[in-house]
């Protein structure tokens, strides 16, 4: 059923791909005529016009997803859930086609874990709400005040908002929108989301059998690797956690990051080993994914395809009016941001913090009509892999993305390989 639904969803018109291929070819011809003997030519930035912005962000600070097995526990008081008045904003949630909000199995699972103090696992706190509000204010300054790119009030013809169907992400999006568009708007803002079974804003182990098979057991195996195992033993002993308890560096870091964001550090050992815990948590994720191209494709490829499709529509003169927005907002997770950074070649081997953003700006030169992409991570300019400078020609940026981008057909073909093999084995 999932496959049939996805086949029926229109991700990007075939004509757009054809048009872009032609446009890129024409642009390369034009650039070859304009550039010097070394293939470089200066770009007059004053002639660049901003055409589109895409922002992928992690939700704000939250409570841990799972408590650590130790006597000393942080008290997660429900007062941390109080909503700051400035962040209040009316919104409604629909599926990607405008239908009813899908069920959220993750929220149902989080509610089964009650932390000391009474809060549920994975809940957005008022600290996280302020973080997201601040990100919204920063975006407002960049795209409403400093550059009059967006309307000062929310306009659905200009802005498309999508979030994973998890409450902390929906609430994070609310707070960001409140900072970006503080002026009242009639009626609620619509946030689009997808069913958990077909979501691509995070690695979907439920929908991708190959990814599930490839990573099965690797998180536990990572804890047994030389270096990681010795460090893990050292931290667990320092915290008084039994060697038999199933605790790895990802779980340790999740608790540590949540506690630090709220000034609630429970154990001096966590503070003493802060850098090591973060690095080993990153090492664990890299081991799980094996830094393998196909694995990274399955993790983030479909989402890269969405970002790419938005770029293609924006540069295609045949795109119907109203099909392209000025701003695309995507509320995601650390497990989205990390592989996205890897695919773009800008991963700094640090865990993506709460409320961090990856921003793609699309510009067109008003004389040459060339297209360029500017990439930011956490508000700082980045040079993507394969790009000569921070201002990256669109065709080169698309080449960088193409290494990991998967259209829906290829994604489901790769993901179903394991399923097909299992079926054959069952028949045998």
Automatic annotation (TrEMBL):
Task: State the protein's purpose.
Answer: Hydrolyzes lysophosphatidic acid (LPA) containing a medium length fatty acid chain to the corresponding monoacylglycerol. Has highest activity with lysophosphatidic acid containing myristate (C14:0), monounsaturated oleate (C18:1) or palmitate (C16:0), and lower activity with C18:0 and C6:0 lysophosphatidic acid.
Family annotation (CDD domains): HP_HAP_like
- Which keywords accompany this UniProt record? Signal
Is this entry keyworded Nucleotide-binding? no
GO terms (BP aspect): lysobisphosphatidic acid metabolic process
Q: Which PROSITE patterns match?
A: HIS_ACID_PHOSPHAT_1
Q: What is this protein called?
A: Lysophosphatidic acid phosphatase type 6
Q: To which protein family does this belong?
A: Belongs to the histidine acid phosphatase family.
Its domain of life?
Eukaryota
Stretch forming the signal peptide: 1-26
KW Signal (keyword) present: yes
Give the matching InterPro entries: Acid_Pase_AS, His_Pase_clade-2, His_PPase_superfam, Histidine_acid_phosphatase
Q: What class of enzyme is it?
A: hydrolase
What is a GO molecular function of this protein?
lysophosphatidic acid phosphatase activity
UniProt gene name: ACP6
EC numbers on record: 3.1.3.2
- Listed GO cellular component terms? mitochondrion
Q: Which reaction does it catalyse?
A: a phosphate monoester + H2O = an alcohol + phosphate; 1-(9Z-octadecenoyl)-sn-glycero-3-phosphate + H2O = 1-(9Z-octadecenoyl)-sn-glycerol + phosphate
């Amino acid at each position: 059923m999932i496959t049939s639904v996805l086949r029926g969803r229109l991700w990007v018109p075939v004509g757009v791909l054809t048009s872009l291929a032609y446009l890129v070819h024409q642009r390369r011809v034009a650039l070859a005529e304009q550039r010097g003997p070394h293939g470089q030519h200066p770009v007059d930035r004053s002639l660049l016009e901003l055409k589109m912005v895409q922002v992928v962000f992690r939700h704000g600070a939250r409570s841990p997803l799972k408590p650590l097995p130790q006597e000393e526990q942080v008290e997660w008081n429900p007062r941390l859930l109080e909503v700051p008045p400035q962040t209040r904003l009316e919104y409604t949630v629909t599926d990607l086609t405008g239908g009813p909000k899908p069920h959220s199995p993750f929220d149902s699972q989080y509610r089964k874990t009650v932390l000391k103090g009474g809060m549920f696992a994975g809940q957005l706190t008022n600290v996280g709400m302020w973080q997201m509000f601040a990100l919204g204010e920063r975006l407002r300054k960049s795209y409403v005040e400093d550059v009059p790119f967006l309307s000062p009030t929310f306009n659905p013809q200009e802005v498309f908002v999508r979030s994973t169907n998890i409450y902390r992400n929906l609430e994070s999006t609310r707070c960001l929108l409140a900072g970006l568009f503080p002026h009242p708007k009639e009626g609620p803002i619509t946030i689009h989301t997808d069913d958990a079974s077909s979501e691509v804003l995070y690695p979907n182990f439920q929908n991708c059998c190959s990814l599930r098979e490839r990573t099965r057991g690797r998180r536990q195996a990572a804890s047994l690797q030389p270096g990681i195992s010795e460090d893990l033993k050292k931290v667990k002993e320092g915290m008084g956690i039994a060697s038999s308890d199933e605790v790895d560096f990802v779980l340790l870091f999740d608790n540590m990051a949540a506690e630090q964001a709220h000034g609630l550090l429970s154990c001096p050992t966590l503070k003493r080993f802060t850098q090591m815990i973060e690095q080993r948590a990153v090492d664990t994720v890299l081991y799980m994914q094996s830094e393998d191209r196909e694995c990274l494709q399955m993790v983030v490829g479909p989402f890269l395809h969405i970002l790419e499709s938005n770029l293609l529509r924006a540069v295609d003169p045949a795109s119907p009016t109203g099909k392209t927005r000025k701003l695309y907002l995507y509320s995601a997770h650390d497990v989205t941001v990390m592989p996205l950074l890897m695919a773009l070649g800008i991963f700094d081997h640090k865990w993506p913090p709460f409320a961090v953003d990856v921003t793609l700006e699309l510009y067109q030169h008003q004389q040459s009509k060339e297209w360029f992409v500017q990439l930011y991570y956490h508000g700082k300019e980045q040079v993507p892999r394969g790009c000569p400078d921070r201002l990256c020609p669109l065709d080169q940026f698309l080449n960088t993305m193409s290494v990991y981008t998967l259209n829906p057909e290829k994604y489901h073909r790769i993901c179903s390989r394991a399923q097909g093999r299992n079926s054959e084995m069952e028949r045998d």
